[in-house]
Amino acid sequence: MRPMRSFGGGGGGMGLPGLETTASKLAVALVAGSVMFHLTKSQSGGLLLLFPDLVFGKLYLWQPLTYAFIESSPIGIIFGAIITWSIGGYLESIWGSRRLLMVALGIAVSAGLITSLLAMLVPGATVQAYAGGNVMTSVLWVSYGLSIGRGQTNFWGLPLSGNALAGIGAGFVVLSAVTSGWQTQVPDLLGLCMAFAYVRGASPRKLWLHLQHWRLQRQLKGRSKHLQVVRQDRPDRDQYLN
């Protein structure tokens, strides 16, 4: 049985990682990006947000990256930084820095790009602008819970399984989609789907291997159509298989 881990205090001792970790740097970047946005949003700071219509329309290609470090409210900044630092630190300890960065930032950026493509293909499917700090923290929250699975963790003093904790994190996003409209949560919903798929084993490398395997099977199947069965009673003469 896995040891109990703590989320949000109350014992269990997950603890906070050191400031030299990738998780802590992501947390600092989230705070710095959010503060910079709020100080400059009346000028050019608003361009740090994700405007789906502008990413490909006007080539604002930095926005799927910068929006991931912006929270729109003070409480979002505080709790987002704590979640990124604490949960990200735990995931970094078992995954390593590179994999943590790929999940936390890679999924947030991918969600931003897909949202921008969706805005081009389906008018009205997105809103004007997104702050994506919640995308990154939700991805980390759900990934943390799923990585524990049926093992026990501690959510603000309440013992529950990792899967249940992941469900709570996803529930916040779904509840926001119900109350505010699903269009306001498009990157968040996409991020949750990608986080679930990744933790369950659908990594980009595995998807590429599956694609290569599928292509090889098609090539072999196509070549087999040109083969002929050589009968034993055929005349003894030179023949070649095509």
UniProtKB/TrEMBL annotation:
This is Rhomboid family intramembrane serine protease. SMART domains: DUF1751. It comes from the Bacteria. The chain crosses the membrane at residues 66-88, 100-121, 127-146, 158-177. InterPro entries: Rhomboid-like_sf, TMEM115/Pdh1/Rbl19. GO terms for cellular component: membrane. It is found in: Membrane. SUPFAM superfamilies: Rhomboid-like. GO terms for biological process: retrograde vesicle-mediated transport, Golgi to endoplasmic reticulum. Keywords: Membrane, Transmembrane, Transmembrane helix. It is a multi-pass membrane protein.
